[in-house]
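**Tokenised fold:**
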Amino acid sequence: MYRLFMSVLLLTALGMEAAGETPIMEITSRETYPDGITVAKLANGLTIIVQENHTAKVATVRCFVKNTGSVNEGKYLGAGLSHVLEHVVAGGSTTKRSEQEIRELVNTFGGNTNAYTSLDVTAYYIDCPSKNVETCIELIADSMQHAAFVPEEFDRELEVVQQELADGLENRGRVMWKMMQETLYQESPARIPIIGYLDVLKQVKREQIIDFYRTRYTPNNQIFVVVGDVETNKVLAQVAELWKETPRGFEPDSMIPQEPEQVAPRQATRTMDGEMADITIAFPTVKLNDPDLFALDVLSYILSEGDSSRMVRDMRYARSLVLSVTTSSYTPTFVRGFFGVKMVVAPEKEQEAIAAAMEHLHKMKTDLVTDAELAKAKKQKAAELVFSRQTVQGQAESLANSYMSTGSPRFNELYVEGIQKVTAEQVREVAQKYFRPESLNTIRILPKGASSADDLAEGLKNAESEVRFVTLDNGLKVLVKRVSHLPLVDVSLYALGGNLTDMENMSGRSSFLSAMLDKGTTTRTSEEIDEYFDSIGGVQSFSAGRNTIGGHLFILKEDLEKSFEVFADCVKNPAFPEDKFAQVKTLMLASIANRTSHPQSELMELFADSLPKTTPFHVVSGGKKEVVEALTPDALRKHYAQLLNPSRMILTIYGDVDEAGAIALAKKHFGDLPVAEDTKPWNFQYPNQLEKNIIKHKQTGKESGLVLLAYAAPSMFEKEDHAALRVLNEIMANYPGGWLFLELRGEGLVYSVFGSLLSGAVPGYNVFMAQTSPDKVAEVKKRLFAAVEKAKAGEITEEEFQNAKQKLIASHAQDNTTVSEQAKVQGLDELYGLGYDHDKTFEARYEEVTLEKVRAVARKYFTTYVLVSTSNREE
């Protein structure tokens, strides 16, 4: 690392000044780091971070505004001003462009734009094809300096935020976080929700928003980040030019009151709709800059990271006390953080689960962790760092957060180094220091009715090979691709099945089977399998979906051979042990019961139950209670034997591999699968037609309304119609320019609305879904039908059509940039019979879609429908 002070554009600036023009803003310092990272500062205080990553032709442009968020709102504390401002500024009009012009410009290249607010920062971003990065830089720079605050836009977004706040009252995750804030913090503004309080929010005036923008959105308070297929010098020059007329602002007064020491236990309890209890126990700890940070994080990983961790193995599997258990060490920069244990439990097991959790914490205070546990946690943290660098978005967030927290964009590397130095004694010391009875906080959400107690680009190009496709003698298809820019390997195995084979009153059978594949083999116990993958920081998982059942392996390169052997053992030799079978059944039944806690899950189950039994979309993947209760190990063994057909399976090995060696591994471990008798191609044409309109409503106890409108739709094999319907969804519903989004969000009728083609290898449904308040459900239904009639009448402009089509094409160009995403798409396309290179034809297929074709599919498919809704009101 070196530091170079320079005035890189000084001569240019002097020349412009002589001509009577404003000089370019001077770059006063520039630091370079490994991995193509550059940090520069302008004379007005703006910090610019650039990382070149030429793996894919994509980029992300982000601006982080410091000294914002709910803890930094000063005299406006409790209003959620930062969050309201985010809504107004993100995509809103500037003095240069209207909101519509910005939306249309972003649509032309398929940019993915959004923003978010946290406790201590607000961030704006656009993800884009790299050829459009200059436009995105200019758009973000414009919003950060020249927001227009159009009254109509302010009023609209204020109403949207109010609805968002109301909807959050039914979201258990948000409610739990709010309760934790208010319990753990009595003096610090960390107790204030990011979104604020409704009665304070209603008092917010446009002038206050503008004042906050002028004082906080100053260059010396912003971090501008660009990561992707870009040239650093060009980025720096453009940003300097765009900020040349904006001077440094006053330094914000960011004095945040600190939280006094907790001297007595605290508890908070409330009830919500649902059948399960959410429990968090937490202890105050440290800020990010405290050296105890490292030992606390290691402690957390030992307790709950992976199925072989102490709490998960004991509380979730051995004793079936919890549906889930996780621990975390939260260490912000502005206030002391906390160590938390979060559990989802059946109400009758609440006290036993809390007692078990406290026992585990007490053990950490008395006993030293083993060398194996310590090594495993350190390896997991090292692997986590590598995995997080796969996307430009992840890299940008890491750079910005590291720099804002510590002044170094590479704090993550330093953090992992600190983790590697942690000793068993230090882990015990932090447990003794912070897990004190007097500082215990217990937060509970119970069910209602329950008791309440630079050669880089060329190097990356050479690091990637074409896909190699081989078919083993037994019919198993194998795809191998070398992508060696990171030392990662992704292995996936898919077999046709899933919901396709669960239609005869067997909902959940394939999910149950997939959950049993790593619960013990004829030569390995479940604990040995979990322990191995946790020890290397790798991930092995099995799951069932609508069309397939399969397994996934995500590991570091050095662990491939041994991991592949264990993976193959789980696939070929599952033992279905009785004790693990009982544990999985308990967990599945608890998950089924827990659906009522989540409005979207309730709605989707109601939708599935309303569909014809001839379609796999009628099957609820997580299962039905009566089916899961009746399943036996022998039933799963029989189902397993039927699915193990190499001619209907595909294996993908992508990543930092030797191609010949990967194929040899496939032959060694899967070449002995027996040849199946039935090798005929799968017939995916399952009837999905609706004989009549179906209308259903479910009354719940939730202060939230959900509406879903669906029409039968073609499979992806009907390529022209499938593509045209996707274009139609963009026109009708989706952010940022869809009819329904503009109309319903614009009028404050919904918090969210979208359209989706829920269809793949099997014919499915075109779905429109909206979240609103219970009193607006009827109106939202009317608006959905009105939009459908508008589409059937062909009232689509050429501009709307072209924008939607180009947005899909450009958005797709930004998809499938990681090894795992590429492996999944290409593997499934080959398995379904489309060919592994089918995705390469995406742009050509969508360019062929015509406006008349889009109008035609609206008339063809928008006929008979399913309409389902949920709210706390009768219909």
Summary: Confidence is low (pLDDT under 50) at residues 1-22, 452-461. The chain is about 45% helix and 20% strand. The two ends are 66 Å apart (CA to CA).
